[in-house]
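Running low. Invent one:
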Amino acid sequence: MKKILTLFFIIVSLGAYLYAEEQPDLSFKDINGTTIQIKGSELGLDIPSLKGKVVFLEFFGHRCPPCLKSIPHLIDLQTKYKDKLAIVSVEVQGMNEEALKDFVFEKGINYTVTTEQNARILVNYIAARAEWSGSIPFMVAMDTKGDVQFVQVGMIPQDYLENLIAQLSK
């Protein structure tokens, strides 16, 4: 009986371990010190604090001209669709947290921003899952359930993003 119980616990432990490996913890702190809880899921990302919202996960650089051109559009979208959209942005050109805070203030950014250093596990996870080679801007758009519905390298026009929000929030 003891062997059976031991075997049972080993199997349960292994199953829990494998499940945990399939659902990695991708959480990070934004530049304000807020922890964003994220777990990988089969079809996208599980972000409990953003459930029910369309999520744009954007990777950008502070020296990238198309990225800089996109910022005012993203600010407008976050303002206009604040009840149904959440933008989470990761700066991937090596800016440190203090410099990024200044950059966010200077640009008037009204959405969640973090450094690549703070979100390294998330960056690596997205690179592997989306076969992202590092080109920026890079956006992953998820519907209200956290399922990835759109992946794009390059600047995306604001009207296209508005149509995407409408489609993904249904």
